Amino acid sequence: MVTTDVAQLSRECNAWRETLRSDRSSVTELDSRLQDLAGTQSTEDVLIEIDHFHNQFYIQQLNIHDLKHAIRSHQQQIDSEMQLHNGQVNDDTLNDHERLYDNFQQLEHTLKDLKRDFTVFVDRNR
């Protein structure tokens, strides 16, 4: 068992989930903008790119949902261990926390790249 600032772990989980909620809204907004743009396009190359972005937005919505669920489950595990082990969590839980943080950072990076690519696409097709 490791004594750690369990409250800090919970705060991090809450912050990640809040960021993911915002990301979900942002991706939904981008998909809406894509649908508006799709109505004005007719060239095959542009329509292929539109389909690509639509698929990416859908995939990232699923990734956001899955990560939020994993974080919520992890937070429940932290809470359970705190009660069972006098405010301590085990090494596996800390390792899970680090893994989730890595997954969170990777998803944030992916979303940033997707938003940048979409902005370039929109600017190119106005």
Keywords:
Substrate Binding Domain Of Dnak, Chain:A, Domain 2, mainly alpha, 126 residues
Structure report:
The chain has 126 residues and is mainly alpha-helical. It has a single domain, classed as Substrate Binding Domain Of Dnak, Chain:A, Domain 2 (Up-down Bundle). It is built from three helices and no strands. The protein has helices spanning 6-38, 44-84, 91-124.
Architecture per CATH nomenclature, i.e. the level-2 architecture: Up-down Bundle
In the CATH scheme, the class would be: Mainly Alpha
Mean pLDDT: 94
Structural class: mainly alpha
- Encode the helix/strand succession as letters: HHH
Largest sheet: none
What separation lies between the terminal Cα atoms? 58 Å
Determine Rg (CA atoms, Å): 19 Å
Question: How many runs of DSSP E, i.e. beta strands?
Answer: 0
Helix content: over 70%
Shape: rod-shaped
Short description:
By secondary structure, the protein is mainly α. 86% of the residues lie in helices and 0% in strands.
Task: List strands and helices in order, with pairings.
Blueprint (H helix, E strand, L loop, with lengths): L5 H33 L5 H41 L6 H34 L2
